[in-house]
Amino acid sequence: MRNLLMTVSYDGTNYFGFQTQPGGNTVQDHIEEAIHQLTGEQLKIHGSGRTDAGVHARQQPFHFHTTSQIPVERWCLALNGRLPSDIRVLTAQEVPLTFHSRRSAKRKTYRYSINGNRIIDVFQRNYQFHHPGKLNVDAMQQSLPYLIGTHDFTSFASRHSTKASHVRTIYDTRIVVDSSGNIPGTTSQGILHFYVTGNGFLQHMVRIIMGTLLEIGEGKRAPESMKTTLEAMDRKTAGPTAESKGLMLWSVEYDEITG
Amino acid sequence: MRNLLMTVSYDGTNYFGFQTQPGGNTVQDHIEEAIHQLTGEQLKIHGSGRTDAGVHARQQPFHFHTTSQIPVERWCLALNGRLPSDIRVLTAQEVPLTFHSRRSAKRKTYRYSINGNRIIDVFQRNYQFHHPGKLNVDAMQQSLPYLIGTHDFTSFASRHSTKASHVRTIYDTRIVVDSSGNIPGTTSQGILHFYVTGNGFLQHMVRIIMGTLLEIGEGKRAPESMKTTLEAMDRKTAGPTAESKGLMLWSVEYDEITG
């Protein structure tokens, strides 16, 4: 028995998220089917976490146990030949049997992208939330330090969260405004990318933080409301859940993997 | 009667090119239908040129004559509300009645994008040609100066070209290699963007130049073959026509527009 760790990139537009659902058509389903076609094994893969329907992944790890003897360097091309073109396995390595893509994860980073221009970018239409209204980025920046550290994030979790604890640690947040792609003659605020890194995230957590940040940017709430919202530990004190298509799992980091 | 000049951006994946075809489903058809819905007029728009099926446009000008009195600043949002999400009108301005988006054009720039990485980028899968094989970019660069200037481009034109003259002037060519998006742990050459600017382009011309450039990059022909191919004035001496999805009309430039 071998334990294989792989990373996958996917355009989530056409999927009901990563993890298998009763309704089918998830990224996990497609990967398991590709493995079945390749090795004949009907096995379960284990993702580093879930993603919601419509959310994308630049690089999401998953692992599984296999009896297949296919050399590790041949797995990527073999699986990609059996996957739809919006799902691609990027890397594959053999890891100790004790390694677990979710439990061993140390840091996860998500990116949420907002198109602040008057008109959407047709080439990014499934990957950016369109918000042409004026955003006060300074106010948004001022609210971010309140998120850093270890807090109970109940205010920023879906009411349907089933986790025993809502305590998570945020290590880093960052807003990057990119105006490099602006087309001459079009009015625009550019693209706003919000990056957030933590030890783990609750259901809808990044999207609710984003919804709250947007209300701060719109002047509907003060930057300090990020602090009072956290302290309230009540979902209704936060902003709305931002649309899923702007969200991308950016990276998942592990400590050095040893046997 | 007013003459309106607009620019449009489109993801060409789902269209049979810009210009109206007997089979329908072109970008022009959708824009004319949106104008019809908005003003009631059944008119013809005039593009700055054609694009092949599957080719994209970052910014393509078109113009049309209208009796509508809708203020020019309201046209973009009004048309975009009636267009599919992969077609967006970016700018609109009133121009003299003598202005013609194709005949008045001075310089056109196309970009052709190649993904040289081992595995495609799922988010760019419809906008990049995948070429994981090793490319000698230096050899490709060496061949580019032969294209500059005024030449008969018969070797680089579709055999179905109906133009009386195949003489065109190329002002500038450029290859930009972008490795910024490379994902750690994946092997890659990065993304190669080829930009070419000229006073006009024949049918398939950029794609045939690209197909020839690729053979030079693969070592199948010498950089100097760009010169001998041009001189031969024979389509069969050039490389194959590169896939349409990597091609994007980048920009069209005019002299200052005056009345």
SSE layout and pairing:
The structure is a homodimer.
Chain A: E1 2-10, H1 27-39, E2 46-47, E3 56-66, H2 75-80, E4 87-95, E5 105-115, E6 129-130, H3 137-143, E7 149-152, E8 167-178, E9 191-198, H4 205-217, H5 225-232, E10 247-254
Parallel strand pairs in A: 3-10, 5-6
Antiparallel strand pairs in A: 1-3, 1-4, 2-3, 5-9, 5-10, 7-8, 8-9
Give a structural overview:
2 copies of one chain form a homodimer. In chain A, strand 2 and strand 3 (56-66) form a beta hairpin. Chain A has 2 domains: 2-103, 2-Layer Sandwich (Alpha-Beta Plaits), CATH 3.30.70.580; 105-252, Pseudouridine synthase I, catalytic domain, C-terminal subdomain (Alpha-Beta Plaits). In chain A, strands 1, 2, 3, 4, 5, 6, 7, 8, 9 and 10 form a 10-stranded mixed β-sheet that branches. Chain A has 5 helices and 10 strands; from the N terminus they run βαββαβββαβββααβ. With 259 residues, chain A is α+β, with helices and mostly antiparallel strands. Chain A has helices spanning 27-39, 75-80, 137-143, 205-217, 225-232, and strands at 2-10, 46-47, 56-66, 87-95, 105-115, 129-130, 149-152, 167-178, 191-198, 247-254. The model of chain A has no long low-confidence stretch (mean pLDDT 95). The interface between A and B is medium-sized, with 27 and 27 residues. Chains A, B: It catalyses: uridine(38/39/40) in tRNA = pseudouridine(38/39/40) in tRNA. Chains A, B: The active site is at residue 52. Chains A, B: Formation of pseudouridine at positions 38, 39 and 40 in the anticodon stem and loop of transfer RNAs. Chains A, B: Homodimer. Chains A, B: One of its GO terms (biological process) is tRNA pseudouridine synthesis.
